[in-house]
């Protein structure tokens, strides 16, 4: 089995619609894909409706969190999407994305960049607006050559000149909320140093003690030495090890299935979850 547990659609900051994403996952030879849009499950129904036979879709979400001033992302899987407390908190985070993005546009304009809110809104296309949309605007304007180059202290990185804060969850609260909704939690790209400061490994141990299920080890932002270190840390803390593409369509260079999760780990995730179940594709709108 080939399993990719981290992918984004136009419901947040990917460039593929949820339907395009699941069809692309099947074309890439995946057996399982998790749709993990930022702070929303709004693409899930479309993904299920389009999922071809032979592909299983996992309910997922990437929650925005902050610990001691450091941003971190928590992947949640197979939770009940209707659980009221988790639904309320994710909507608070999602709704704060718009004023936060508007604030960053204002900061960029003050720095002499001719970006507009209309441009960013067009790029977001109704999805949950985030920094990658603003980064794409900077690429369009020729300010930076790639989306990744916008995530520096000069521009959009945490604490950067154009950075603005948003409502984010305490990760201990996020773990509690996801667990209460029957879900499983995995710390996304915990050592992606190119994105800014990372949560220290001592904090990962505290998160594990609070119920964190796993860490995403095999990821494009982790080099070989980092992956080895994280795999050892997971062993010490009895955490599951996942691998994922963190696919964003054409917005990033990663491909669906570039990194994958071991089938035994996936099986353990499904065994621990009680809020939802993986859904096999039925042929989708396009047939199979």
Question: What would you note in describing this structure?
Answer:
The chain is of the alpha/beta class. 36% of the residues lie in helices and 15% in strands. It contains 10 helices and 8 strands. Strands 1, 2, 3, 4, 5, 6, 7 and 8 form an 8-stranded mixed sheet that branches. Helix 1 links the parallel strand 1 and strand 2. Helix 1 crosses helix 2 and helix 5 crosses helix 6. The radius of gyration is 18 Å and the shape is globular. The two termini are 19 Å apart. The mean pLDDT is 94.
For the structure shown, list the relevant keywords.
10 helices; 36% helix; single chain; alpha/beta; 288 residues
Question: Could you tell me the strand content as a percent range?
Answer: 15-25%
* Biggest sheet architecture: 8 strands, mixed
Task: Tell me, rounded to a whole number, the average pLDDT.
Answer: 94
- Low-pLDDT runs: none
Q: Label the structural class.
A: alpha/beta
Number of helices: 10
Secondary structure topology:
Layout (H helix, E strand, L loop, with lengths): L2 E5 L10 H10 L4 E4 L8 H7 L5 E12 L2 E8 L6 H12 L1 H14 L6 H8 L6 H10 L30 H10 L3 E4 L13 H9 L4 E5 L5 H14 L2 E4 L19 H10 L6 E2 L8
Parallel strand pairs: 1-2, 2-3, 5-6, 6-7
Antiparallel strand pairs: 3-4, 3-8, 4-5
Helix pairs in contact: 1-2, 5-6
């Amino acid at each position: 089995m080939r399993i990719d547990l981290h992918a984004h659609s136009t419901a947040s900051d990917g460039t593929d619609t949820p339907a395009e994403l699941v069809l692309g996952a099947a074309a890439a030879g995946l057996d399982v894909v998790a749709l993990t849009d930022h702070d929303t499950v709004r693409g899930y129904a479309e993904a299920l409706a389009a999922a071809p036979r032979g592909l299983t879709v996992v309910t997922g979400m990437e929650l925005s969190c902050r610990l001691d001033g450091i941003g971190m992302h928590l992947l949640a899987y197979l939770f009940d999407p209707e659980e009221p407390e988790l639904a309320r908190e994710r909507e608070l985070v999602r709704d704060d994305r718009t004023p936060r993005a508007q604030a960053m546009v204002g900061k960029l304009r003050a720095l002499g960049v001719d970006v507009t809110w209309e441009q960013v809104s067009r790029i977001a296309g109704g999805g949950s607006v985030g920094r990658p949309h603003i980064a794409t605007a900077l690429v369009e304007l020729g300010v930076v050559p790639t989306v990744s180059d916008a995530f520096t202290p000069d521009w959009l990185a945490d604490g950067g000149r154009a950075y603005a804060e948003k409502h984010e969850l305490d990760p201990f609260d996020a773990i509690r909320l996801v667990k209460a909704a029957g879900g499983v939690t995995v710390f996304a790209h915990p050592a992606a140093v190119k994105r800014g400061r990372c949560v220290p490994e001592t904090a990962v141990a505290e998160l594990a003690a609070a119920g964190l299920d796993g860490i995403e080890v095999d990821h494009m932002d982790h080099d070989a030495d980092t992956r080895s270190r994280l795999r050892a840390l997971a062993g010490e803390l009895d955490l599951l090890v996942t691998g994922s593409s963190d696919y964003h369509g054409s917005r990033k260079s990663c491909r669906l299935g570039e990194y994958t999760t071991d089938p035994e780990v996936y099986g353990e995730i499904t065994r621990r979850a009680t809020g939802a179940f993986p859904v096999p594709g039925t042929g989708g709108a396009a047939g199979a």
